[in-house]
Every structure is written in C-alpha cells, then in structure tokens.
Design brief:
single chain; 444 residues; mainly alpha; 20 helices
C-alpha cells in the first residue's frame, strides 16, 4: 500500500467517524475532500471542485429530483392517501391482519406516486397506526408494517434514488424505472405473505375489525374501493406509464406528474396559496439536501480516486477467493453494514462508484447490479442507528409506541428485504425482463 492509498483509507475512516459523530453527511464529504485535496493536490482542488458542481448542475435528468419531490409533497397534503387507505381499510378489515394488509397495499400504491419516503411513512403513521392500536394489533407489527411499506417509495418508480443512480452510473433512468417495478412489487408481496402467515399463526397479533364496523360486502364496496383508488392509478399511468411506454423521458414525466398532482389537489379542494408555499418550501429543503450530498460526494470521490483508494478497493475485491459470486456477496454485505451508519445517499455516491469497475471486471450486468444495490439500500431505512423510517414513525406515532416496539417490529421486515434481495440475485429476469421487452436497446 502506497502512502497515497494509506491517506485514502484514513480519509474514508475519518469520514465515517464524522458522520457517526453527528456531522451532516454533505459537509463531512466536502470537508474531507477539500482538506485531503489541498494536502495532495494543492490549489488545483478548487477548480476541480467547481467542475464537479457544474457537472451536476448541467445534468438534465437531475431536474426530475425536485419535481418528483414536489409531486410527493403535493400528494401528501391532497387527501388521496387518506381516501385510498379508508377504502382499503373497509375492504380488507373483516379479515385477520386486514388493516396491516390495507397499509401495505396503500403504501405500494402511494410509492408509485411519489419518489420519497418521508411523505408516505409520516402519512401512514398518522392514519394506520392509531387504527391498528385501537383494534389491539401488536405494536411491533403495526410499526414494522408502516416502516417497511412506507420505504417502498424509494424503490418503486418514480424513485429519487433511481433518478440519482442513473447519471452517476451512466445508465438510462427509464430502464432503471422499468427494472425496479417488479423488485418493488416482490417486496410488497413478501410483506403481505408475512402478515397473512403471522396472523394465521398468531390471531391475537392482528384481529379483524368488529362485526359492527364491517361494511356490507358486495359490488357496491368493490366499486367504492375502485373509485377511491382511481386517482392514484391515473397519476401512476401518467408518470410511470409514459416513461415505460417511451412516450416521455423521466424529466418530462416528472413535470407531468407534478402538474397532475396539482390537478388532483385542486379536485380535492386542497389547492391554496398556503398549500403551494408549504409544498415549495419542503421541496426546496429536500432537494437542497440531496444536491449538497451530490456535490460533496463528487469532491470526495475525485480526491479518493486520485489517491488510489478506488484501485486499492478494486484490487482487494477482485483478489477475493471463491469467484465472482463471493465478490458480489461481499459488496452486498458492505452496503448492508454501511446502511447502519451512512445515509443511503452517501452509500450511493461514495461506495457504489468504487464498486462499478469491479462489476464491469467480473462481467455482471450493470442494470441488474444497480437494482441489487437499490433493493439492498431498502434495508438502510430500517437498520438503526441511522434509519430514516424509524425516525419518521417515532416522531409521528402515538406516545404509547416506544422505540423498542419499532425496533422489534422492523426485524422481520429486514429479513424479508434480505430474502427479496436473494431472490433477485437468483432470478435476474425479475429485474431484466421488463426493461428488455418495453425499452429494448433504449438507454444503452
């Protein structure tokens, strides 16, 4: 190991220490990049840093980030989620675990309407957890369902994670969207299967709603449920359908989605000046955080690679025994452990660029690997201490919900996410089939 490579190792170690110590990831990245850059590159680090920022700002695809965030923020306040959940609550309520099932289905639908998790997790915490607690649901199951289901929004398109991944790895975002659909639905199906099996084994964990609360089952109930869900499907088709069909680029579709979200908010009589100001302010905060992390990661990675850190890690991974599948397992394990301590944006922009040359060297499909990364990063939302979904649930849940209840509730769902990741590894067509048949060679 050369002196420069040793400095790269120290650089990464200090970054991890700063993040664990509470320094915001974006500023930790910028600080370490600039300090080590000054030491080893001198004043040349400053124009290099400006070029990194300029490259991000001229990226057309990243325009979709604030637009998708704005769309999700508008939907959070429009009342659509409440109406969808209420209709599914009536539809599934008469069966054991029905409220938990309704929560996962609502989260899955809402995930396809927004690219961030904060809106979904917070909304479902306020809607679903009080309903489940009132009916004596197990606290761990109630909170785990919301954490896991709400986190689907970062995987099921239109996902901000996928929008950020595409330019970084030189992959078509449209193909990433198409590739992510079935893995996201697979995780949702695993959650539903777990709820059904657990409620069969432990009926007291999730009892059905009382006979007095049950609506009459029939065509009227089915029609009412379909009508309430229809606006969400309208938005999904407008955004995701136009991308997969090749009608619009992700950036164009994000504009369409934001406009359609405004139309839905107007239809629900929620579109006011104050409403728009709050949505714009939230969008500004979230988008600024995302872009600062991208800026910082660009500077950090440029210096880290200049020092030879990328080559050091690449050689170490390629030199592992037992072949390419063991190398893949090692990379997935590193991402999983990293999710305990570093936000997903950091892992996406710090660790993944180092892995990409290794993926190319051992011959894995980059699109397939991209979705394995994104499925893996689902676990980072549920693994403390830096677990966003847990933070959102704890902040909005009733006071009788403790942090221990949430930790206990997310453990089975982290295991299900690991199972989903394993299935995607064993059956690559889950990821690759849809982009191949819908988009063909587009984006290569």
């Amino acid at each position: 190991m050369s002196a420069e490579q040793f400095a790269a190792v120290v650089m990464f170690t200090l970054l991890l220490a700063m993040v664990i110590g509470g320094v915001h990831l974006a500023f930790a990245l910028m600080f370490m990049g600039l300090i080590l850059g000054l030491i080893y590159q001198g004043p040349a680090i400053f124009p290099m840093a400006m070029l990194q920022i300029f490259d991000v700002m001229e990226s057309e695809i990243l325009i979709a980030v604030p637009l998708f965030v704005f769309m999700g923020t508008i939907l959070e306040r429009s009342g659509i989620a409440e109406k969808v959940y209420q209709s599914l609550y009536e539809f599934f309520g008469p069966v054991r675990g029905g409220l938990a099932i309704a929560t996962v289905v609502t989260c899955t639908i809402f995930a396809a309407c927004t690219g961030v998790i904060a809106a979904t997790v917070t909304t479902m915490t306020l809607l679903a957890i009080p309903s489940m607690l009132k009916r004596k649901y197990d606290k761990g199951l109630a909170t785990g369902v919301v954490c896991a289901g709400g986190s689907l929004g970062i995987l099921i398109p239109p996902s901000v994670m996928l929008v950020m991944y595409g330019p970084m790895a030189n992959l078509s975002v449209a193909k990433l969207f198409a590739a992510a659909l079935f893995p996201g639905l697979l995780l949702s199906a695993l959650y539903l299967a777990y709820i059904i099996v657990r409620c069969w084994l432990q009926p007291e964990a999730a009892p059905a709603i009382s006979p007095e609360e049950r609506p009459a089952v029939g065509a009227k109930l089915v029609l009412h449920t379909a009508v309430q869900i229809l606006p969400a499907f309208f938005l999904i088709i407008a955004v995701l359908g136009s991308i997969i069909a090749g009608i619009a680029s992700p950036t164009e579709a994000s504009g369409v989605g934001a406009f359609c979200a405004l139309l839905l908010a107007a239809a629900y009589r929620k579109l006011t000046v104050q409403y728009l100001k709050e949505a714009a302010y939230t969008t500004l905060i979230v988008s600024t955080m995302v872009f600062f992390i991208i800026f910082g990661a660009g500077i950090f990675n440029a210096v880290f690679l200049y020092l030879g850190g990328g080559n050091l890690i690449r050689d170490a991974l390629i030199g592992l025994p037992f072949g390419k599948w063991f190398i893949l397992a090692t990379m997935m394990f590193i991402l999983f452990i990293g999710g305990f301590f570093i936000a997903w944006q950091g892992l996406l922009y710090i660790v993944v660029p180092i892995f990409l040359p290794v993926v190319a060297a051992i011959g894995f499909d980059p699109l397939w690997f991209a979705l394995l990364v994104c499925v893996n990063l689902q676990m980072s939302f549920l693994t403390p201490p830096f677990a966003y979904a847990i933070f959102f649930v704890k902040g909005a849940a009733p006071p009788e919900i403790t942090t221990l209840d949430i930790y206990r509730g997310v453990v089975p769902f982290v295991s299900l996410q690991a199972l989903g990741l394993t299935i995607c590894i064993l059956y690559p067509e889950i990821i690759l089939w849809l982009p191949r048949v819908t988009l063909g060679a587009v984006g290569k």
